[in-house]
Write a structure and sequence with these properties.
The complex is a heterodimer. Chain A is 77% helix and 0% strand. Chain A is mostly helical. Classes of the chains: A mainly alpha, B mainly alpha. Chains A and B meet through α2, α3, α4, α6 and α7 of A and α1, α2, α3, α4 and α5 of B.
Chain lengths: 284, 276
């Protein structure tokens, strides 16, 4: 039936299909362009610049130099060493972050408060918890790259700055999320232990930790994976590892080395991704 | 006959030995310990210079130089315009990423059982590569063709985020109920119109929420992207830090913190309002 109606409707509107939503579509399109315009101005967004003869030549020359890849023995030894340094920086950073995060999350968790067992928490413990939480949030919200810039000034170029940067930012992140995880679950067992006179650390080890261990561990593994990604980025400000080599090769316009390093980096991220996914599956 | 008496501590109730070759958790813990120790040993970490009195003093001097932050109106207005540039970079980058991600998600997903989806794995490889390279590395690469400035940063955000969003979009499209699409397909409707009238309306809310979530991430990323010269607050930060203008650096750091905190509070409020 609709098949016979359609031509008639077409005839009625002068042989063309009419879009019933036409005016509203035009209105939203114009509005979107008007809203996007200032964004384009602010970001100096002129994509045709990419295609100007000078830029185009530089870009194409650089891309052409990607092939052949550089893979002589000496370079590959260096790549292997720097890859290990990247992983080691992430691992050491996350370990130090744990040293920071675990005590702070114990201090910040409301479930482990003795005074909150009966009614409201006392004033000073509440203030202390609020203060620890605020510290964690501040640590977390300064990006690791900024920490690294600061530490490179203090301890000089090298992995120490990178490890400290990861430790501080990830300490904040892990501490905050640990406290949230510990508060999210069932607190009955913990409270029962504390009501019957166990210490807070005992209640944590025998009741709170076992019921949240898998979740905590899986979040830590996920953050370790993220730390590997960010330790590459930290190399760009002089913290060593793959990022620094990539920066050097890019500055020398050595396309072959850049391509090799990028491929190694993609492989490393994929590997960390798989290991982390496998570990988290094994944990749950 | 009398049942045999159990031993005082039957063997199965004894605590297990600390290490057992068949225990996966033991091997895992051992591997973890080895990894951590090897990391600390192999990195020539310079604790001496960090923990020494001299380093403490230089750290103190360094921190003291931050004060007082430069809050002259002229400089603050420059910081505000850099913050706006950062915000614009993140917004434009995310919008472009959503468009590009959607364009890549369509070939990367199998729309129906009959769909051969030849391009599925090559497109997924492309998405993984886009995603694996961080924004900052993309920005450093793009500086070569786009020159210093916020455009390189915007394009870098767009490329990395399109990898992330493309993969999420593809997963979303593969996980919707196939009923509406099948109903259209059995009537002989072509793939383009099936996509527009059956697939897209079903996944659109999810696509929007993924995009908003990534925008939140990108604001944070855009703030530091400038460190390699790609515009926004980060470029100002590395410029002023390079010249040891610590008072100005302090203002920029404050602006960064404020911006990140605002985004956190807004997104928290928005999520609470949406989940109500």
């Amino acid at each position: 039936m609709s098949a016979t109606q359609l031509p008639q409707a077409q005839l009625a509107s002068g042989g063309k299909l009419r879009d019933p939503d036409f005016s509203s579509r035009v209105f939203w399109l114009v509005l979107a362009i008007l809203l996007l315009w200032p964004l384009g101005v602010a970001t100096e967004f002129r994509p045709w610049v990419l295609w100007e003869p000078d830029n185009r030549k530089v870009t194409l020359d650089f891309l052409a130099s990607f092939w052949p890849l550089v893979y002589d023995a000496e370079f590959m030894r260096m790549v292997a060493r720097e890859t290990w340094r990247t992983v080691a920086m992430a691992t050491a950073g996350v370990t130090l972050a744990l040293v920071l995060a675990v005590p702070m999350c114990l201090m910040a968790t409301r479930v482990l408060s003795l005074s909150a067992l009966s009614g409201r928490m006392n004033r000073w413990p509440a203030v202390m918890r609020w203060f620890v939480r605020a510290t964690l949030i501040v640590l977390r919200s300064i990006p690791e790259l900024v920490w690294a810039l600061v530490f490179v000034r203090v301890v000089g170029l090298g992995p120490t700055a990178g490890v400290l940067a990861i430790a501080l930012t990830y300490g904040g992140m892990l501490g905050k999320v640990y406290a949230e995880i510990l508060e999210s679950g069932e607190s009955h067992a913990t409270h029962t232990l504390m009501r019957n006179g166990s210490g807070r650390l005992q209640a944590f080890v025998y009741a709170l930790l076992p019921s949240h261990a898998a979740e905590l561990a899986s979040y830590t593994v996920y953050r370790w994976e993220c730390a590997i990604r960010s330790s590459v980025v930290l190399g760009f400000v002089g913290a060593g590892g793959l990022g620094q080599q990539l920066d050097n090769s890019m500055k020398m316009f050595n396309g072959g080395e850049v391509a090799t390093l990028l491929l190694v980096f993609i492989a490393l991220v994929a590997l960390a991704d798989h290991v982390s996914a496998w570990l988290r599956r094994a944990l749950s | 006959m009398m049942p045999t008496r159990d031993a005082a501590n039957p063997p199965y109730k004894l605590p297990p030995p600390l290490f057992d070759a068949r225990c996966r958790a033991c091997w895992f813990t051992l591997a973890l310990l080895v990894l951590v120790i090897a990391s600390f040993v192999s990195l020539d970490l310079d604790w001496a210079s960090f923990a020494s009195l001299e380093a403490g003093r230089s750290m103190y001097r360094f921190m003291a130089e931050f004060f007082p932050p430069d809050i002259s109106p002229k400089f603050v207005s420059k910081v505000v315009s850099a913050a706006w540039e950062t915000l614009a970079m993140s917004a434009l980058g995310t919008i472009m990423a959503a468009v590009l991600g959607l364009a890549l998600a369509v070939p990367a997903s199998r729309m129906s059982k009959q769909d051969a989806a030849w391009l599925r794995s090559p497109t997924r490889w492309l998405l993984n590569a886009l995603r694996a390279i961080p924004e900052l590395v993309w920005a450093a690469l793009l500086l070569i063709s786009a020159g210093l400035g916020p455009m390189a940063g915007t394009l870098a955000l767009a490329l990395h985020t399109s990898g992330v969003l493309g993969r999420l979009f593809a997963e979303a499209m593969e996980n919707i109920p196939t009923g509406p699409g099948d109903a259209l397909r059995t009537q002989g409707v072509g793939p383009l119109r099936v996509f527009a009238y059956a697939t897209l309306p079903q996944v659109l809310p999810q696509l929007m929420s993924y995009t908003l979530y990534r925008w939140e991430n990108n604001i944070r990323a855009a703030a530091v992207l400038g460190v390699v010269g790609a515009g926004g607050l980060g470029q100002m930060l590395s410029f002023n830090m390079g010249l040891f203008l610590m008072n100005k650096t302090a203002t920029i750091l404050g602006a960064m913190l404020l911006m990140v905190a605002c985004v956190d509070v807004l997104s928290f409020a928005l999520r609470r309002w949406l989940n109500r």
